[in-house]
Write a structure and sequence with these properties.
Number of helices: 2
Order of helices and strands: EEEEEEEEEHEEEEEEEEEEEEEH
Strand order of the largest sheet: 1-2-3-4-5
Structural class: mainly beta
Distance between the termini: 40 Å
Helix content: under 10%
Largest sheet: 5 strands, antiparallel
Shape: globular
Length: 295
C-alpha cells in the first residue's frame, strides 16, 4: 500500500486522497479518502487503460477524524472525532460502498478515554490506543465483525509494521514493566500469518537514566545464512538512540543534539585593548534572552 496526500476536485466538493492500493484482481488501482468531514470516497482505475471504472461515496452522521485512515484486507477503517465510534467499509469488486458504524465500547467494553487509530497494522488487524491500553482488533470475514485479539497496558509503544516473506507481517510492542527505576522493558514481536498469530517475548534491561521509550522503528535485514532477521531502533526519553537486534542492544548513541530545530549565529565582540565592559553586558543579555526563548 502507498500513502498519498493530494486533493482531487469533485463536482460535489474536495476529495482528500489518503490511501492508494492495488485491487484483489491486480488489474485495478483504488484510491480511498475523505469527502469533507463526514464522507468517504473510493475511486477505482483500470491499470491497463487508466479508465475510471468506479467512483463511490458514502456519508455518515458524524464528524470523521480525518487525521488517520487505515485500509486492511480492502476494509476502510476510521474513527469519529470523539473517538467513540469505529467506521468500517468494504471495498469490493461491485460498484457499491457502504459504511458500518460500531461503537467502540461494543468492541472494548472497558475502554477508558478517547480512542485513537494507530498507523501500524497487521494482516486483518488494526490497533486502537486508549489512555491506559493498546488494543489489537481483528476484522472478521464480513469486514464489519470486530473482536479483540490482544490487549496491552500502557505505558507501551508500538512500532511500524513491516511485511515479511510468505505473506507474513510483524509489529513490535515495547512495554515498560515494574517501576521506571527498574529500567526493564518487555519486548513482544507479534507475527500474523493468515488466521494464525504468534507472539515472541523477552525482557530487555536498559541503562539507568534513559527514561521511557518514545519511538520504535522496526526494520528487516538478511542474515548471512539468507534468513530474515529483525532489528529495532529505539528513541529514548533522553533523546539517545539504541539499536536492538537478537534480544541485545548493539549500540547506543547520545544524539540529543539531533533535536535542535533552529540555529542562529551570533558574532562575538571584537577583541581589542580598549574593550568596553558595558558592551559585553549588552551582548550577554542578548544571548541569554535568545536561549530563554527556546527553553
Amino acid at each position: 500500500n502507498y500513502s498519498a496526500y493530494y486533493c482531487l476536485c469533485r463536482q460535489d466538493g474536495m476529495f482528500s486522497l489518503r490511501k492508494v492500493l492495488t485491487g484483489q484482481d491486480k488489474n485495478s488501482l483504488y484510491g480511498v479518502g475523505f469527502t469533507g468531514n463526514n464522507g468517504f470516497s473510493v475511486w477505482k482505475i483500470y491499470l491497463f487503460t487508466g479508465r475510471l471504472v468506479m467512483q463511490e461515496a458514502a456519508t455518515v452522521k458524524a464528524n470523521i477524524c480525518t487525521d488517520e485512515l487505515v485500509v486492511i484486507k480492502h476494509t476502510v477503517i476510521a474513527l469519529d472525532c470523539a473517538g467513540k465510534n469505529i467506521f468500517t467499509g468494504h471495498i469490493g469488486p461491485t460498484k457499491s460502498f457502504s459504511i458500518h458504524k460500531t461503537p467502540v465500547r461494543d468492541v472494548v467494553p472497558d475502554a477508558f478515554g478517547k480512542a485513537r487509530l494507530l498507523k501500524a497494522t497487521l494482516e486483518g488487524v488494526f490497533l486502537l490506543r486508549f489512555v491506559d491500553q493498546i488494543v489489537f482488533i481483528r476484522i472478521g470475514s464480513s469486514g464489519h465483525n470486530l473482536e479483540i485479539l490482544e490487549m496491552f497496558e500502557r505505558p507501551a509503544i508500538v512500532s511500524n509494521s513491516i511485511e515479511l516473506p510468505f505473506n507474513k507481517s510483524v509489529v513490535a510492542l515495547f512495554q515498560h514493566v515494574g517501576s521506571v527505576k527498574d529500567n526493564k522493558i518487555a519486548v513482544r514481536m507479534i507475527f500474523k500469518d493468515g488466521e494464525m498469530d504468534e507472539t515472541l517475548s523477552h525482557v530487555l534491561e536498559l541503562e539507568n537514566g534513559r527514561g521511557m521509550v518514545q519511538q520504535v522503528h522496526l526494520s528487516g535485514y538478511i542474515r548471512t545464512d539468507k534468513s530474515f532477521g529483525l532489528r529495532a531502533l529505539l528513541v529514548m526519553e533522553d533523546c539517545s538512540l539504541m539499536l536492538m537486534q537478537k534480544h541485545d542492544i548493539l549500540w547506543i548513541r547520545e544524539d540529543s543534539l539531533a533535536t535542535i530545530q533552529d540555529v542562529v549565529a551570533v558574532d562575538l565582540p571584537k577583541e581589542h585593548h580598549n574593550r568596553n565592559p558595558e558592551s559585553l553586558k549588552v551582548w550577554f543579555k542578548v544571548v541569554k534572552s535568545f536561549f530563554f526563548c527556546f527553553l
